[in-house]
## 1
Amino acid sequence: MRQASSLHHHVLRAPGEAASAFTGWSISWWRVFHFGALALVMALSPRTYDRENRAVTAKQIYFTAWQVLPWFTLLAALLSTVLIRIVVATAAGYGLLQYAPELVVRVLVLELIPLFAALFVALRSGAAINTEVALMHIRGDFDAMQRAGGDPLRRELVPRVIGSAVSVLALATVSGMIALVIGYIGVYGFSPWGFDAYTRTVGLVFDLEASLGLALKMLLFGAAVAVIPIAASLEMPREMRLAPVAVLRGMVRLFLVLVLLEGASLALTYQI
Amino acid sequence: MPPEIQPPPLIPHVEFKATLLLVLTLALIAGFITYVMYARGAFEKTQRLVLVAEDSEGAKVGMDLTFSGFPIGRVQRIELAEDGKARILVDVPEKAARWLRISTVFTMERGIVGDTRIRAFTGVLDDPPLPDGAIRPVLRGDASAEIPRLIATMRTLLENLERMTGADSSLSNSLANVKTVTERMKSRYGALAAMLGSEANAQKVIGSIDRANALLASVSGLSLKVDNLLSKTDARVFGSAGVMDETQKAMAQLNAVLGDARESLKKADAVLAEAQAIGANTRTATADLAALRAEVEASLRKVAHLVEEVNRKWPFARDTKLKLP
């Protein structure tokens, strides 16, 4: 009898739990967007960039973008070379070599390299920022800074957001250009005579929608990589044992968002 | 005191590096945008060409118009015209427009693999150039549309073939018959046995042929004798001073005699005609004379008829014409 009533109790409680979980989930996402909007406004406001803040922002850009740029570019070039070789060899095998340049440009520059850059920045800087901000939050650094008259959002968080976003943009742009060059060499070799045809292909692929879509996607990737880990760190209760949970939640959410963004971009581009 | 985040060891020119990175990124983006605009022909002066097609299927915005395999234009827009035809608006850069002449033919082809292609063919490059905004029909060729028809034809063909090669088909029966025939042909009497059905029949035929050979040998002897006889007869009848020769001479003489008779009768006729003219005043005399003349003329006609008859039967006379008065 007691078992039955407990079961009954569970059944009754389950929808309530689901509802509260959904509310928590919504609030959590609301915080992410709220923080993102705040950071965006602040990043766009010229008053953010006073002398001290410029130095901090420059340092963040240095750490998240400048330091990794050579290594990332090398890695992306290697990956591009391998992929281009595979595409060109396969296309040549099927006698469809004329479609290889378009495929290379589409797959690499439009899709893979931005995602690769975002994942790389998330892995290298996102996780680090997530941990750092979680620890600062738990230790009460931000409260202390606020009491001392400082603005932790402007001084500590927005420079990190800008650093991550610039990093994604810079890495994706540089690697994308290098992939374009490698793509040309992979398809036409070092002959200059393929330039016109290649230019035409690039023009064909980058129509207005694709270009705007790529720009929007890179901005969203940058924003996601910068904002989600910080937002996840800030919403945790201030307990040291929850620091790993904050990092875990932030990274999982970031990966989810990156995959969803990429999926949405593909769906829109190719009208699935 | 709030725990300060320890600044990392001094980084030389950190702001400069950050600015450099930003500038590099922005320059790359700006350069890429310029390149894409160049690639899309934003800096080229173009002229418009309107291709009118029955069906725009396969055509899409951004596809190339090619000439001799080189892209010379790009589809800018595809629209449905008032008359229900598809209008494909192509932008051709002015430097490539020289390949398009008023006699240029445009085709839209659809391969089995790959895109639809719009192609231009210019036979005479000396024709006047195509004006801006020209409207031209485009001819369609669709390889994949042919496939269903091809498959239907092929299926019929295969069915026929199957029927022809079936176990009880006439072809197979014929082949069986051929086999029987060739087997017979391998026997002692060969093709003959095959044709006649059995060896016994073949033997009979061979026997008949042998007898026919013997018969032909005796006929040959006989014909030799007949030959001799005929040559003798020929010499007797048709040789010089033969029967025929004499007859010919006699007929020639007869012909001459009859000719003389005709001449004398002609003279008599002339005399009578004169007499008729003289005696024109007396009606009765004239009537008598006329009757007489008719009689003479009748006999003359008989003689002429006789001459003609002789000439027809023995056509030796040089002059076969008969002249009536």
Note: The mean pLDDT of chain A is 87.
## 2
Amino acid sequence: MIKQELWEGQVRIPSGCAISAVISREGRPINGSAMIESMRPMHERSNGLGGGFAGYGIYPEYKDFFALHIFYDTDEARNAVEANLRAVAEIVRAENIPTRKIPAIIGEPLIWRYFVAPLRSVLQSRQQDEEEFIARLVMHINTKYTGAYVFSSGKNMGVFKAVGYPEDVGEFYRLEEYNGYCWTAHGRYPTNTPGWWGGAHPFALLDRTIVHNGEISSYDCNRRTIEMYGYRCTLQTDTEVITYIADFLQRKQGLSLEEMASVIAAPFWSTIERKGEAERKELSYLRTLYPSLLITGPFSIILGFAGGLMALNDRLKLRSMVVGEKDDRVYIASEEAAIRAIEPEAENIWAPAGGQPVIVRVREGAY
Amino acid sequence: MGQWDIYPEFEVVRNEARCTRCMGCIAQCANGVHSYDEKRQALLCDDAKCVDCHRCVAMCPTRALKIVKSDCALRENGNWDGDTIKEVFKQAQSGGVLLSSMGNPKRYPVYWDKLLLNASQVTNPSIDPLREPMETRVFLGKKPERPQRGADGKFTCELPPQLELSMPMLFSAMSYGSISYNAHEALARAAEELGIYYNTGEGGLHEDFYAYGENTIVQVASGRFGVHEGYLNAGAAIEIKMGQGAKPGIGGHLPGTKVGADISRTRMIPEGSDAISPAPHHDIYSIEDLRQLVYSLKQATHHKKPVIVKVAAVHNIAAIASGIARSGADIIAIDGFRGGTGAAPTRIRDSVGIPIELALAAVDQRLRDEGIRNEVGLIAGGSIRSSADVAKAIALGADAVYLGTAALLALGCHLCRTCQTGTCNWGIATQRSELVARLDPKEGARRLCNLLTAWNHELMEMLGGMGINSIEALRGNRLMLRGIGLTAGELEILGVAHAGA
């Protein structure tokens, strides 16, 4: 019996991990089963205490609605959250997320999915755009409703995660029934506690998802900074804080992906000083502006978003990560084996340098 | 009421077998402890005049001298200890306010010593600063709410004025007057070489030191000594001194005897006149007045210099700091109650204000709760004694720290705590030219550079151990701290967990 205080969010839990991603630059559908196969050779990088996937382009029939994936502990929690949802949003569909009973995945919570649109009247009265509204709604549910946890909240995308090995998690969620232009996946090796389903990766807010391998030493500096801007880090995991930083820098501060990479994996001052004047000024500007959003310690992350993804290593490259491609597809993973497992003919395999962002976008109009 | 009220605190012990009667000790002691009796052909000493500054000890070529605490003690008493009784005697004799110098020496809790730093094991690699870059550069100043872009979409790259430091340490304010010309020169030279800043204190800037302007913080205090347009524009930043940790709520008093020609010119007051700094700024009776002074100083310097507001750590410091952050200040400096001084009423020094550790933790948290931590830089001072204290201060939330006492120790100060007498045998807290000459500014600067370079090396080792390779990732990173032997209340204020938790 695990004591209550050792649950996710009660203590800080460092993890080691495996990550993998595939994207079609032409926006062509990739079946979710491919991602499961990619994770299989990295079994040793997980310890069965968390696995998950994010698929983009998987809900084309509801692409204009926010897809909320929610874990509930009880029906009372579900009733309370649904009452709140009905008051502020139009719910066009509500259902259990289909799962497959398998021995490897047990103790599942109630897993629901809603396709919603915020009520225009509510947006107007709160003077918020729909993304800000949904982001705040997610924070509100996750901090104020006991036994309810929103783990996916973007449009035409979804996160599927659980306690278990990633390949089992994929089978549990019947990922072979989904097709998307981009997938990311994660296998977790937390250092203690069986945790809780919400603690698995990917971690998501709106359409941004993060899968992450590493333990960041700047965690509390980053957390205390991002919490100044209305985010609440309830899980005490690195991934959660990185997701909020990405949301803050991109959605609220208007930084591009490249600019964001130069904040969170900022080049060393000695590197900046060797750059040409324009670049030097810009990099110095960003480092001076956002000193507390620098992330130190080992990490490799894949940030998924509508229409693309970005992979990034910490500036010392303390975690492995390789990139490969074949035709319109780009593959990124902790190990080359994960890429070869689903594309034996992968070409141009290379390891990005520390702090060097790898950004892949789907052709405009193709997603 | 005998021959004397108080038996001397220290005894000067001379080893006659070692003493060569070189008479060096007589020359070294400005307090007149040592003398030579021609008749008896003996070296004598008047223990009553000894302040335990160790000058004679350090200069004796044969190590024939030592100073020991007198064992002539009053009857033990748990309530009326010897010092307390002696202070009553002194005041009964003089009728005056007790004066002291340097920081609060009482046995209050030192929270630095009850905080422990973290290190990486297994899940996260520590980083070797000898092999990997380890960054300690810090920018102090206001960070805008969001980046500004020009019409072309590119960043304007324009920021409010920032102070750039090669390491998160600055020399704190010590005025010319309270310390000597040579001490100031040593600080200025060291600041320049280290890529940091020293602080003029409230005594103006000597004309010789305008050359170090890029590494100088010029102070504006309640007495406004030596303040003019050229002075304000001479430094890299301006500090408004509202208070000082050693004597919150109290002004300053430089006796006329110390106001010689040079100090008179620098402070812009008549020679021989007392330089009295009022307790409050008489143009600041409220927070909105502070805002006016901040903006007056900004205007006088064409908005090119960051303005620091220095306050003593007092009970309501979090709210005060929040007010300062909203008053246009670029940087807040908080001075804890163990901070040093050239002279303060003993009762004030020892009983007023709060420890910097608690003040810093409360201020950093309040500014974050209000979402304005990025509006200001935060400097903590008031007894930072080692690189470990620096690391802990930064983890609690400081951007950088002020070093005063530690810098003076590097210059030779032995912390005898009698600066107010003006007879500093080490040439630091004195204006007597023969004493000032004992402090070689170049040698002093070298020792200051040694000290800070050593601390910075240690800081890098600690950062690397924590798996951090840039100082900004330690700032406010309170998970890197654990308390030891602290109560739940103390831990809550410090915002740290207890060791083991």
Note: Confidence is low (pLDDT under 50) at residues 1-5 of chain A.
